[in-house]
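$ fold --in a.seq
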Amino acid sequence: MTGEKTYRVIISGGGTGGHIYPAIAIANNLKEKHNVEILFVGAAGKMEMSKVPEAGYEIIGLWISGLQRKITFQNLLFPIKVISSILKSYKIIKSFKPDAVVGVGGYASAPLVYAATQKNIPALLQEQNSQAGLANKWLSKKVSKICVAYSGMEKYFPEEKLVLTGNPVRSDILNSLDKKVKASSRYGFSAQKNTLLVLGGSLGARTINEAMIDSLPVFIEAGIQVLWQTGKLYYDEMLLRTRNLDMKEVRVVEFIREMDLAYGLADVVVSRAGALSISELCLAGKPVVFIPSPNVAEDHQTKNAMALVEQDAAQMIPDKEAVEKLGDEILKLIRNGSRKEVLEKNIKKLAKPNATDEITNEVIKLIAA
């Protein structure tokens, strides 16, 4: 790294944690391996405007939002927002003078990546999902490289531009398998007992929480330890609704920061099927039951989950059946050692532990070309 030229890279995108955390992982890896100055560009008012500075990077916000599925005032403003954001992107590029641009998906990435390609600046896209997003599909003809997490993405993108890298995830997840004893101590659990980890994202998932309210008495009676992340929106309500249950072996938490310990603890996981969650679960190598969110663009979470179900690497319950089926499905799986082994073995095969390194290498190759 010593004596290497300082590269200037803009990373653009956001809107959700699924776009922001991979972007920060790429930035951290670039900084670690090379002399790099990094600028983030996101959507003004969205979560990246706080999460990126918390990670130590500068960010500029664009006046941009996604298209709504119905006729709204926001949709009428959409063309004006796009033009405004592209013009601002040209100014950012002129001022920062990047050697390369990385788009991590979401509507926040489109104006900046488009402006960069118009100025012949090398651009790379990172597509996290098995179903390509609209912004990335539109940009794919203009960029030089597209890093993807799933095979078969040539149905969305030019095949010659594809690199199968996987999704960037936090490096501490890699060592989560060795942390069962430490994690059990952290949560006051027994390392000898079966533990269920329930994840609904940072804000929470209404269906998963409702299914847990229904299933919790079954898990308690079966002696299963439960670590349940309700999400910020539902935490108080779930505490209230479980106050009359015997919660000695249940931990209800709003948010889990030490995900490596949570995965280390788990014998079975219940989760939404966001791209980032799936990548982490593949690295953690845990049997998982997905309950895909139906409230996402083009139902991409169901497609993400099915990509694993088809390889017998996970199980899935549709959102509308979760309340009725979750308790029985988990009980059956947690008691079936051989089934758990099959799921563990198959999900580990899909892990891409070097994803962040590979994406970083592609960025540097673009600059050097």
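$ fold --in b.seq
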Amino acid sequence: MTSSGTDETYQVCTRCVMDRMDSDTEFDEQGICNHCRNYEKIVQRVLLPKAERPAALQRIVEMVKAQGQGAEYDCVIGVSGGVDSSYVAYLVKKLGLRPLAVHMDNGWDSELAVSNIEKFLRKLDIDLQTVVLDWEEFRDLQLAFLKASVSDAEVPTDHAIWAVLYQAAAVRNIRYIILGSSTETESLASGRWTYGIHDWKYIQSISGRFGTRPLRSFPHYSNLDKIYYRFVKRIKVFSILDYISYNKAEAMGILENELEWRPYGGKHYESIYTRFFQGYILPRKFNMDKRKGHLSALVMSGQLRREDALAELRKPIYSGYMFEEDMEYVLKKFELTEGEFEDMMQLPNRTFRDYPNSLAMQDFIRRLRVMAFADKLGFSPKL
């Protein structure tokens, strides 16, 4: 599913492991890719110097506690069962915060993910709110994205996660949503890999054109909703992992030793559909291997040697038995025959630009957000 490197046009970055397979990738005279350069700019723009992070984190924690006085919870965290969100739960409790954990169940949770969530929340004594999506409605939306033939077909899940976090915070007048994203370990990727997580217009356009069911109960938020959440409800969103020295391997060790957490394989593989989509559909249909971005970010952050990342890429994404089980499971849940699925795999590839979207408005709101929330606390708000 990945190139062997025998093609004369094939080239791998000399710093990370991004390669020429991505049409957005360019190399300078030193063989360094544009994604590495962009990563450095993002890290420099978003992150505080390491020496300043502890004090900034302490100020934010004090602010969260102060504004949450008298309430049952002072922040909302999302939990998926994966390493990042699980470690956030561990960390906020150590900092003395009182989080409400929110989990969005879209019907694709692996048994291991469910087990992880139950174990670490019980040990940490954190309350859980689970939002279960209407399966028939969500199934129809996921199939619509496959029929649209875009590489960002997991947008519906990510959008719903954000929606339930916002809604949980707004209903309880909680001012802070604490994310499990990490700029250092997640900011190296191609711009063509994903678009539309926050674009309800884009999701509606795909559903309207290719879906068969109206989105009556699907958790969502429009551009106006975002303005309401940010400027009326005054909800702030930040990633706590940007204020610590976050090392994934060390975090996994803590989770395993202290919270009975178990690893699940690749990044975001706590979801069976994510595993199948990233491990099979993206490489085969779109020639995309998201491991390259994930591993490259770890290389650039100093958490992984480049040679080890290259060795990891030489391994198959799927073991044979797991792929066969996942394929059978996905087809059954989607109520597709092998022929129907293959027909979708053969559709011409499209991008979000082929469908109505609100990219211009997204950029405008992003600028408003930066102007409104940039302050001397060293607070790095997230979209």
